[in-house]
Amino acid sequence: MSSGPLTEMKAKIFFLRNDPPQNTQPLFFKTIGPLSVRRSDYISHRATRVWLVEPIASRQNVESTGETCLLVLKDTWSDIDAQTEKEIQDALFNDIKCFSKRLANAVDSGDWSLLEPDERDAFGSLMDKEKEPAKNLLRDEGYRKHFVTILQDWKGRTLKPPGSQAESIRAVPLFYQSRPRQYPGKTQHRVLCKEICEPLDDVKTFGEVIVGMEGAVSAMLILFLAGWVHRDISASNVMMYQGQGVLGDLEVAKRFRVRHQHSDEDFLKGTPYFMATEIYKGFTQARYPRPTIRTWDFTLNPKPDKRIPFQHNFLHDLESIWWILLWTMLQRVPFAPSHQYAAGLFVNTRNIPQAREEAFVAGGALISSLFTSLHPCFLIRDFDCTVDLLRCEMGDTCDFFDISRGSSNVWSIL
Prior knowledge:
Layout: E1 13-16, E2 27-37, E3 49-56, E4 71-79, H1 85-109, H2 117-124, H3 128-138, E5 150-159, H4 174-177, E6 186-193, E7 198-199, H5 206-226, E8 228-229, E9 238-241, E10 244-247, E11 254-255, H6 277-281, H7 314-331, H8 336-345, H9 354-361, H10 363-373, H11 376-379, H12 383-400
Antiparallel strand pairs: 1-2, 2-3, 3-4, 4-6, 5-6, 7-9, 8-11, 9-10
Helix pairs in contact: 1-5, 5-7, 7-8, 7-12, 8-10, 9-10, 10-12
């Protein structure tokens, strides 16, 4: 989470306490500096702010307690009935721990009926060479190092919901306009995190971005095996910590139930720059064309657009990783043709830009544009073909993934 250079700001005092109090004293923290401070353009709540903080004794005694190192404090607003991020992470870790135990027992006994049907499908979808590394990720709670550590959280005051006649100034895709949008009240949440991470949109080298994405994919594999989806993969939520990629910001993460259909919970979840195409559009996508390598010979294999109800699934999270890769190659490299092409793909809007849809659905538009807009250092390494082949693999995988039948046996295809 980063917003570039910021002007110097006065120190603030934040406190965390249980509400209602549970025989514990409130914890006080003094800000050292801002990590992310943005103004909100939403009618329903304020923007998230993130600070570097140090513990202090009280409001009156602002000297450092010296008990611990610097920490990260996030001040955010969530729906009034939403869980805190720590509650979500605790539920996630509990599901991972339970799955890990069932998997270990199933492997030791050879009795795979010890796993739930969806768990058998998920683990069975891994190739043989992937299964041992997957078990290593789960062993001895090793999965925790792939996520930001949340130490404390706190619920604060509540904002009243907007009036009944309130309307968003943002354009809403046609599919979503048929369902009345509700604007619930918002509750303030403060979250204290242990690691001081560097988001991918701030790292200095392309190699670090790749390492960060590898770490995020490992975290997403853990989520997949435990039956969860993140729903907001972005260059701010994938971060580097001590040379490893970690995944943060679990505010909208939830359990994935393959036999459930689309719900209002999935209303345009995610960051527009990195949002999956289906989430952007609100319905299932036609099959993506597969190129003949280096010939640019594309043949669309059309598939009837039935606008089948769907929900946010792990394939959408994987597509967000793909958009992070493309955004990094186009936007963060100082090369004017790349920036010109990126301007049509990455737009902060709730209606999918035409150029973005064509890039992901009609592959010929993507690879021809990459050939003329990518920096030469990427072209000599065939990154244009690599990016497009990844897009094709995701398209083929969508054909195998049938949300209506509850199939989740697709990880190894990717």
